[in-house]
Amino acid sequence: MSHAPVDKNQKLNIAILTVSDTRTEENDTSGKYLVEALQEDGHTLADKAIVIDDKYLLRAKVSAWIADPNIHVIISTGGTGFAGRDSTPEAIAPLLDKHIDGFGEMFRSISYEEIGSSTIQSRALAGIANRTLVACLPGSTGACKTGWTKLLKEQLTASHTPCNFVGYLTK
User: Fold this and answer.
1) Domain 13-169: which CATH class?
2) Are the C-beta atoms of 72 and 59 separated by less than 8 Å?
């Protein structure tokens, strides 16, 4: 894995997308957690939105963020289950240039220790599109904490070794 050396203090511009038919800015605890966590780690909130669980609206929002050269990372929360309207994986997967298969596998492995076999109902996924990392987490605040603290935080830290995603996301 070779990529251009990066400043070990590099911080990223991150957009947060809550996928829900019922959440508002007032009750979106998962989106709020992710915003606070990324800012606590020194990253910048590039944008935040709540979009209903409709794959075409999701694709439109995520596509616009992927096309924005100032956004390095998109983290979505919600829509990864099996309910009738859960469509985040179907919406996002076709937009990805490269799928990060290990992300969903690791998320479910870590989550198993927390919630047991219920983790099998998570369709968490991630990939890279146009030098933008797109990570899709389940909608619960607990799942967002797991995804951030156990996977994303390290991989979005330029000094994390032996490797991290920062060099792939910054020009």
Assistant:
1) alpha beta
2) no
In contact, 72 and 6? CB cutoff 8 Å: no
In angstroms, rounded to a whole number, what is the distance separating the alpha carbons of residues 70 and 97? 18
What are the sequence ranges of the domains in the chain?
A: 13-169
The pairing of beta strand 98-99 with beta strand 125-129: antiparallel
Q: Is-above-0.85 flag for pTM? A: yes
pLDDT tens column, 82-102? 888 889 999 999 999 999 999
How are strands ordered across the β-sheet holding 125-129? Answer: 44-51, 13-19, 73-77, 132-137, 125-129, 98-99
Q: What digits encode the pLDDT tens for the residues 103-129?
A: 999 999 999 999 989 888 899 999 999
